[in-house]
Amino acid sequence: MASIHENISLLDTLGKGRYGVVRLARNIVGVPLPPHSQKTGEMYAVKVIHRGTVSESILQQELSVLRVLKDEVHDSNLVRIVDIYEDSCLVHVVMEYMGGGDLYHRLLTKKCFSGDWDYDTAFKRQMGGGGLVAYLGTSDVQEVERRIDAGDKDADFYFDAMIYQIAKDIGGMATVMNGQVDRVILTGEIARSQRLVERLRRRVEFIAPVEVVPGAVEMDALVAGALRMLRGQEEIRDYDTERND
């Protein structure tokens, strides 16, 4: 099994997390690696995961997704997975280094200033044009599940990617609460999906018991907000005016 140190020099630490660190790295031996070549001196971000700090089954699930991204998904809008190195103690995930901030917001800013989008187009993209819609053309989870049941591997892949992202957000919130979490509550219409609930439960139930409260309460919240303003309990806000100011 090849060692990462044969090809890559690990440099400064870019960030730290519960399960490891992200290191800046440089390629020291240029080698062709389809579908991309690695150039001598090319900079990478390397996620270093310590085995033993995370369940091996969860780790292997993560690595299986990353291998698909590495070998099968070649999209200029996604961070490139260059290589994955494993040994008995550590996993090194070598990724394209994107200096200068969050990739999504860099791409969104670039598109906004390209002249192709106006404000309304950018707002709609931000609020409802990503996720399942962007990849599968629908936000209907039932439709996505029908495709999965019919053997659509892309639908299953992007459905699982959505669950992966939700789990990351739940884990992120758990850290700012110092791990003192009483319940993880899944709500909204999407919580009616048994497939989603079970897959998500497997990822986050180590944090706290998972409680499912399916259904949406947007109209109740809107009514309650309107009543607070009519009763003078809350100031009426004009977000368009405030945005322009």
Give your account of this protein's structure.
A five-stranded antiparallel sheet has the order 1-2-5-7-6, covered by helices on one side. The protein has a two-stranded antiparallel sheet with strand order 3-4. It is built from nine helices and nine strands. The chain has about 240 residues and is of the alpha+beta class. The protein is globular, with a radius of gyration of 22 Å. Helix 5 packs across helix 6 and helix 6 crosses helix 7. The protein starts with 7 loop residues before the first strand and ends with a helix.
Attribute tags:
22% strand, alpha+beta, two-stranded antiparallel ribbon, 245 residues
Write the layout of secondary structure elements.
Blueprint: E1 8-16, E2 20-27, E3 31-33, E4 36-38, E5 43-50, H1 56-71, E6 81-86, E7 90-96, H2 103-112, H3 119-128, H4 131-136, H5 141-149, H6 153-176, E8 184-188, H7 194-204, E9 210-214, H8 218-230, H9 239-244
Parallel strand pairs: 8-9
Antiparallel strand pairs: 1-2, 2-5, 3-4, 5-7, 6-7
